[in-house]
Amino acid sequence: MVGSPFGDGVALAVSSRRREQHRADHDDQRADGPDGEH
Known about the structure:
This protein is an all-alpha fold. 66% of the residues lie in helices and 0% in strands. It has 1 helix and no strands. The chain has one helix spanning 7-31. The longest helix has 25 residues, at 7-31. It is rod-shaped and about 50 Å long.
């Protein structure tokens, strides 16, 4: 990671974006759930 000037930034951006997408998927599943409450 230290060898590349922007490797760290790219990794952080990808992981944060993946985390946001994961959270969005969970919210969708919860909203579509039988109880429908968060």
